[in-house]
## 1
Amino acid sequence: MEDKTSRAEDFRYNLVFLFPEVLRPLKANFCREFEHLSKTCTGHIFTLSSERHANLKIGDFRLYSGQVQSSFIRTLIERLWIQVFVPLRLLWSGPRVDAVITWDPYASGIAGVILKLLLRTRLIVHAVGDYHQMDPTDDIVGDPHVQITLLKSLKKHMMRCVFQLAIWRADAVKVVNSDLEQFFKRRWPGKPLHRFPCFVAVDYFQSLEHRQGDYLLAIGHPFYRKGVDVAIRAFASLSKKHDNAKFRIMGYAPEEELKKYTRMGNGNRRIEFVKPGWIEEAGEQLRGCYALVHAARSDAAPRVLFEAMACKKPVVSTRTNGAIDYIEDGRTGLLSEIDDVEELAKNMDYLLTNPKVADEMGIAGFEKVRREFSEASYINSVVSMLGAVVK
């Protein structure tokens, strides 16, 4: 007779993950999640990337990717191919798929719904953005300089419909902050919800040699949504008082947009724009900064907050839904109101004036990440969610 205990110990979830885009799948901030999950799970990953991949091994997962295209229509066709037709060809006659997990309720969400129905499996949809506060496809959240064309309006309407469908068909939704959790409870009462942040390669950032440098640092894009204009004005207002402090801004912006933000500095040579990079370049900037400045207008659970805390850096942030959940005001960082240049400058000034306090906040953040948001803690949350959904 088969030993049921042994069979339970050998059981591993067979999963399908759908991501909109993963440009460098072997970087630690992506592949480490699946290396950890391989202890209890196996499966496939389907996404778009900077190059095509077929059967790329990441732990006990196999990654297949189409190539990012230059137009919306070509990208849509490529995505349907790699996230619907390729999975069905590979998995149709294979072992049962326990769950399809999509990174978002939009492009990956509709593919997830199709696979759920055809493979007769469970669907878990990740809600990693403030979808209840910002329109779908909005990268700049209210930037007054951007024109809303008819094509963009039609695209938004289509994405709203896809959102509704993906959430309706989902067996569970994974959210990243408490405000999102309350939204889904009101809108879809009874829908199973699981709340925890996205995977962050905190082991990598904690392993770096940290020092208290002479520059404040902002990381992210798009610049308007990340409040780079607010951060520049705040730093400019206090730069004369702190004549040794610098402000570095790391992130991608089109050339014309970058010129606009450069002009905001009014020729201040202590405001420096750094080219965007991968996890290694971000780690190099974070490990040597004085503090992270995150002046975002919207951010559901920005990974850079956890990365900064893992590097023993205090965080000066706006009160986004993610920040108020994960930053302890006065202990691991300082919070200010969104778009409030004066309050942001006041908090930046306080940390620059009190290096001992900045150091203590950095250590408190480091301990919080190690205690509550480790890589192992994330994996435990995922496995717990799977146990609740896969029956």
## 2
Amino acid sequence: MLPPAKGQAIVEFVLTILFVIIVVFGAIELIMMIYTYVVLAEAAKEGVRYAIVHGSNNSLRSGPTCPCPAIDGPPGTGVVKTTAKWSLHDTSTMTVTVNYLDDAGNPATNVDPPTMVRVVVSYPYRAFFSFGWTTLTVHAAAQGRIMN
């Protein structure tokens, strides 16, 4: 008959709890990354909405021939960055690109309706539990058609 194993329960507990902790922290990190993507997608939609509302027949028109600081201006001034700022994201590292496209998907030279507007937001995601891993860049985009 073999003698009873001493410390076996402690070893099993340590191995199990390490696995559980890694899964919990991984789940929290994944939730934070998905939240960041959702915030960026919502901010891009706000930029598209602004461009559509301020189309070619508006006194504050938006388009490829005019600067659009209201959409992608300096940190904290554009609607995209303002939307993202309310969700506690650092907008100083955020990149916003506004493209006006014609029906073929090529860059448009004017905003005569119907012109497509595409807003792309890029954000370097910093991990909540930073273990020295590389920084991921999260991208979100939205597009709509200027009809007015």
## 3
Amino acid sequence: MESSSASVIRSFLGRSKAELAFYSDQFAEALAEDLSGFPAKTAADPTGGDALTAAARADTLFNSLRIPVYFDAAPSIQIRLWERTLKILLDTDRARYAALHKGTPFYFLGIASYLAEDFERAMFYMDCALEQDYRLHGPRWYRIPSGMFVRLDDIPEAQAGRVLVRNAKNLFESFGKSITTAGGAPMSLDEYRARLVNHGIERNSELRSVVTAFLSYLLEVTPRRTQLQLAPAGSGTGEPFFLHLFKGSVLFESLLRTSLAGQPIVASDPKPILKKLLSSRDIFQGLGLNRAPQGLGASTFGNVVKRIKDDAAAGVPFNERAIRAVWAVRNTTGHNLAWPLRPDSAEYEELFVLVLGSIMLAINNLYQDHMLETGGA
């Protein structure tokens, strides 16, 4: 039987602006009527039969709106309409909204945001979907599409975002090869899953932001590459590239802080600077270095680029070169965006690989004790 809200949407489809149906009073009223039939409280057993039945009903309601079908070529419209739908439900009855299983709209919001190249939004909503699914499915979370997404698992076919997962996985593996070519040791997918994702989902919730930041940092390189190809380096804004690289450097610092080697330092000093973290024997030896790394001593972003090239010419090993680079990027872009020239494509690519290499190095070397097998990986 068709829901009231779905019938309103269908009635508007013959109009030139079908999305206007979602902004109509009829739709809002019908959606409120649909919501009234759902429980006002979550089931006592979040994985029991009542919870599963309520979640299935919610999935049916959201799928009946057919937003990804009606607006398949317009991800930005999908985002607006999903958010509009959820806002109506929230404003109608906050208790029922809280109890309602929202895995489906959050998952498709993640996909639409990915397609719109709004990767932070994409990973936010994908993590929201995962939280909903984890509450419902518990230890089976990695078999649910949202879990497959954050684990970059493109093997199961039963996932609407499979192509996007495969694209992200290919990007992960492609840059792993770039790191190998540069002399580093990339992180494997199994290591990424077992040392970071599984642990973040099942044991340490503060790592959830690290997981989503890692993925959004990785995915954002594609549009940034395109921008530099279409508008080569020169005068003009470098904001997108400075902020992207800065994000990667903060992610590296976050990994140091939350590692077992970094936790005692943070406990004694809640705001340790990167130099203090890298001066810790447990950290620099954990990263595979014989001594604490030295900074590049670069005061401008242009000097950072030059000295990174000098390090490469001097044969500085990749791991040390990557850490020196990410440290310098953190200090320059974290305090100033007003640099006269943006990097060119080759410089940006090298900086991205060095920052990503330092991130993978930290996960590989400092998170070995976090190993957590889930579903065989």
